[in-house]
Amino acid sequence: MTIDEKSKALMEWLEANQGEVPPAEVEPEVIEAVYALRPDLAPKPAVDVSMILDKIESGPFADNKNSSDTVQNNLVSLAKARKNNKIWGSLGLFAAAAMVLIVVVPLKDNEAVTRQPSFQQEIPPPEAVEDDQSQLYDQNQLEQEADYEPLPEQTTPAIQGSQDAAPSTVQPEQRQEEPAVSQPTPRAQSRSASDNMEPPPNPAPQYEIDFEGVDLAPSTPSAPSAQSAPLSSETEIIEMDVFDESGAIGELGGEPNYGEEGLSFQGYGSGGGGFGYSSEGGIGSVSTVDNSENTSGRSADSGFSRRGKPQSSRARTEAVAPEQEDVEFVLEDDELMAGSENREEQSQEASTARLSSEELQVIIESIVELIRHEQFSEALNATQTNRPLAVHDNELLKRLWIQESQALTGLGRLDEAAQALIEAEKL
Amino acid sequence: MSQASVTSAMTLDQERILVARLKNGDRSALSDIYQHFGEKIYREAILPRLPVVELAEDVLATTFARAMEKIEQFKIDDKSIFFWLRRIAINLTMDQHRLTTRDKKIEEKSKVIAEIAPQGERTDRRSEKIETRELVEESLAMINPRYAEALRLRLIQDLDRIECAEKLGITVGNFDVLLYRATKAFRDKYPPR
To answer: Can you give the pTM of this predicted structure?
Structure first.
């Protein structure tokens, strides 16, 4: 653009109305010179109050800006507040979690530690063992008694009554045979022989086991030869007459089996209610046959009637009269009669003696635990106390000797420990 | 000029009331004072020293903003608030010159102008015109006399281009070119100090 054109545009802008926008062709320097000489020719300033307020940073107008700005600032403030709340909330959660980790978890650990059984809790003291054994004995006894349904209480009077008032229920021949039966049987002989033997060791004080009604003599190592010889030589056949309530005839069989350690008597019944009982320790066996009411027999030393019938391997029960409910027992001798007065007690004694083997294993395990935890005195006391209960079982007795030897070794009684070990080796 | 009439329309008592409202943060008082003195400050104090429109407008807004921030310190006696606003505008104009590197010469001259300018309470509207005219005459004296005569005839005396051409003995076309070159020369010398 030539200078003529620029000058012409300037003249036209100057002759125009005041405050109009200068033409683009005119150089800014020319426009600025015109504004310096004629400020009135410049357009009005494009400034309003809001622009001024935007530039105000302090003073009375700084706190009195328009409401929109205030609202916007408040919104920003609220957002910041929410953000702060989130931050504080997160910090609070973190603090709570830390408290849980610091306080609660250690408390739980402590509780877990306190709840863990100690050795003393795991291993009951001897008294507790004795109590537990007594309870076990009682429980086993109850179970045994539950299985073994004793005769009704009127049985004994009925027996007597049958002997007194109902002689017809028994065959005359049988009654005539009573005197022969009343002769001392080989079993009785064995009992008498056992009476001559050394008395059995002292029973364990913690078990109220009445060994008087149970012949433990055969269980001693030296006893079997003296006891079993007469029995085995005669091969006595026992026959028991059982009067069945229902009239059914049941066979109650008992086959004497003289093992190493004593008399074993196995019974079986065909009447459906019988059970056989085998005693390895010379304890009297019980057999019964009945549909509704069990009747029980007992081996020789238990005092039940026995009739020797050669060539017969079973004991027979006969129902003589369906109306007669009781069982007639023919007693052999006074001694056996005295032992059979309370059959419940006798069966209980038998159960007790039989359970002692099982309990002894528990006791031996407890003794092992006592020795493991260096409670040698208690272990020694337990072995010595329970050893008489194990005389019928060489294995258990051997274990008891070994445990006693260990207990004595722990107590420093080496000579006695060696002696106990020798006793164990003998077995 | 119209700005002068607006300014003269407000008495000192009215200005005292207006200042009292400004001290209370009254936005309407701010709008009133800007309506009365804004354009005058722009055209008489800012634009003659800073003829760049965009910069002059920014200085104008900043002038009133700074005045409102310090309004509680202002004590009106017997002088108008215009001179207080004008002093603020001139100072801001000098600051603007410092910020721009485009024309350091202008910045230096603006400082001189601010130094020689009458201080607040002693200045009035007439002295402001005299001050500005002195600056213009000083600059005109620094350029070609024919350029200065053309500027005086056309922009200060406000004659039309035909009369100006006749007085200078040139054609109207030549006067237009002469005026164009005179304005550029004047801009180079203005402000003179």
So the answer is: 0.39
